Amino acid sequence: MIFLLFLVLTLITAQAAESESLLRPNGVRLSVHSLTEIINRDTLKPAQENDGLPIAPMHYVELPLNHGDPTSPKFRNRYWVDDTYYSPGGPIFFFDNGESDAGGTEAYLRKGATGSLAREFKGYFLASLGRLEESVNLTVPGTRLLILWEHRFYGASMPDMTSAMRFTPDKIADYLKYHTIEQALEDVVVFAKQFTFGNEIVSPGEVPWVFLGGSYPGARGAWMRARNPDIFHASLASSAVVQLQMNFWQYYRVVEETMAKTGYGNCSADIRRLNKWVDNAFDNQNGSAVDQFLEKITGPENSDLWNFFHFDDSPDPEEIWDNRRLNLRGAIEIIFRDFQYVGMNGVLRVFCDGLQYFGDPKRGRTDFRNASGIFEAHNASAAIDIYAKVLAALWPKILDPTDYPPDGVKIDQVYSVDCAISQSTCKEIITLWSWVYQTCVEFGGYQTANVSRPTNLLPKFETLENDLKDCKGWFGNAVAGGPNLDPINKKYGGWNMNPSNVFWSDGEIDPWRSLTPNSIEDNAPKRPSTTKIPSSGSTAGGNTFFGFVIKGGSHCADLGQHVGQGPDENRTNLSPDTIGTKVPAGYVPEADTAHNLFKGALRIWLPAFKAHPLSSESTFNRDTVGSENNRPSRSNSDDEDGEKGLATSLSASRCFYSALIVIGVCAML
Ligand SMILES: *[C@@H]1O[C@H](CO)[C@@H](O)[C@H](O)[C@H]1NC(C)=O
Ligand SMILES: *[C@@H]1O[C@H](CO)[C@@H](O)[C@H](O)[C@H]1NC(C)=O
Ligand SMILES: *[C@@H]1O[C@H](CO)[C@@H](O)[C@H](O)[C@H]1NC(C)=O
Ligand SMILES: *[C@@H]1O[C@H](CO)[C@@H](O)[C@H](O)[C@H]1NC(C)=O
Ligand SMILES: *[C@@H]1O[C@H](CO)[C@@H](O)[C@H](O)[C@H]1NC(C)=O
Ligand SMILES: *[C@@H]1O[C@H](CO)[C@@H](O)[C@H](O)[C@H]1NC(C)=O
Ligand SMILES: *[C@@H]1O[C@H](CO)[C@@H](O)[C@H](O)[C@H]1NC(C)=O
């Protein structure tokens, strides 16, 4: 789920140590789109055990590191196969985990959209070929094969780490140079062609394979249909951010408008007042003001957080200010962390209500909509003090310091880890870097401040220039040209692409919708969409696409736990009346509408599947789109604004959701 789509943020800073520059993770802009995450965020409580059924077993497939080189070394890519209710004939549902460690997600395959689809579609598609009619019992209900796929360079799908060794920018960039969109798409193609399951007939030439994904994986599903229609018969492109864009200030436009609409307009005014103070401190190079503010958040009660933030005594003044910038980003932008998943029903609401409560404890503790804002009620220094107090209360609940950095490695030790000695720790650390790298070389998508908007919610240091500078600090000269968006946008057409047998679902208040065919931004093509299901192999006609926007829905809303589960009195929704001491989930009823549209489409598309020979030729074309990213001579690409920069991550970090459960205004006090 894109994309990961992509929020607060483990920030990462580069710092010089002795003669070599070392990478140092610091805050985070991370993406996590595993099904586990979506399901946990959907209910905001740990997903239940998987019906007491055995969990899908894990497998590895050997794949070339560089599909453009027949002599390439191989690496082992991880996947899981859930065959609990398998009966012959497919289809094969392929769930793409995307930009995170997929480990643990296998327990949730039978939940949410994946489980719902698997229960619905029986194994008669092979029979429809007229080949195995007699051996297939059409009356036996059951799940089809579910495959969970881990993306290269995430989790355990790591090429040999010896070359990464210690974390210098050049070494990391060299290690990640085959971490490209095209290489990772070809991984799936090669896997699908050679996949076997006992003696069953599972080849994509003989049974339909269906790609399921949201966010970056949603885009992968759409790209896959354009690229390899003989391998994947259909795709669910949920929140599929197929338009790569450098400067993505529109992300926060959606947040701004949602705050205003839900009665939190004065809270966003408070955020802007704080940002103004931050802007002044940076303009005046008032380091003690910034450091004192950060210290109020990290200590002394939050001393564990001290390791998370950095206060460097670097002699290089510019570096000190870069560190302050990244530390502040981590500290104050955490309030937007889960917005893309739950809108105003998560951290942002807790923060806004918390401001008012701390600002005036006599007012009670539940509903602070339409409150006046603390900068109106207090003088600036008192308001800033309150602001820091609320962040201090939020931080330890949002970020479990024992969970980050990985494997109990303290932040200060991260950059001294030697991958030759500690591979498992390195896998976790590289997984954290992996999406950041993708944004630096191919994605862009940076969530910048647009200071000409009166409702802008970010400090003005959130510029493309700074994002680009950070990339260079983390990955060295290999990324000096900035992300190269053009090849992928050109090859697939961005939000103008129109492959057949794809369903494009988006959430109305998902900021990532702005980079999909359902975008309503000024720079978007604003193509017409239809909910009329096109026949298999056809598009909806002209520029029209088969898609749906989920009212009130967030990122990947049609993939979560409640989707397709039928009526459940325990579901919560985004009604404003549910605010209070518990955080409601992101489920909205129209997520089911989207899900049912896709099911309806599969009822038409799957039976139309025809057996076909698979080409043995590689579909990886190194001349069209890069096989490697590590090319200092890469041509720069310009976005509409002619600016260069970097993308932010699509989503929040893994450790976050369990903490959310306990967050409530009461829990903070
Ligand atoms: C098909 O499965 C149903 C349900 O298990 C069973 O009652 C029926 O006898 C089976 N038919 C054949 C031809 O195997
Ligand atoms: C707060 O303001 C919104 C409009 O901004 C309004 O719809 C809502 O009813 C108000 N809520 C309360 C509790 O006053
Ligand atoms: C720096 O900020 C502090 C606290 O906000 C303030 O007291 C001080 O006057 C500022 N110093 C300068 C040089 O602006
Ligand atoms: C802002 O605060 C004022 C009181 O100062 C209140 O009347 C108004 O409804 C609030 N507006 C919003 C959008 O919260
Ligand atoms: C700001 O308000 C606080 C508490 O309300 C008070 O203690 C402080 O003296 C005020 N500061 C200024 C500069 O007015
Ligand atoms: C900032 O937002 C306005 C619309 O509010 C837009 O016209 C402008 O292009 C944006 N600026 C940049 C640098 O993208
Ligand atoms: C709703 O939640 C309660 C308490 O957890 C549970 O007992 C009940 O079965 C749930 N209802 C449904 C329809 O799942």
Automatic annotation (TrEMBL):
InterPro entries: AB_hydrolase_fold (IPR029058), Peptidase_S28 (IPR008758). GO terms for molecular function: dipeptidyl-peptidase activity; serine-type exopeptidase activity. Residues 514-538, 559-578, 617-645 are annotated as: Disordered. Keywords: Glycoprotein, Hydrolase, Protease, Signal. Transmembrane segments: none annotated. It comes from the Eukaryota. Residues 1-16 form the signal peptide. Residues 528-538, 617-635 have a biased composition (Polar residues). GO terms for biological process: proteolysis. Pfam families: Peptidase_S28. Belongs to the peptidase S28 family. This is Peptidase S28.
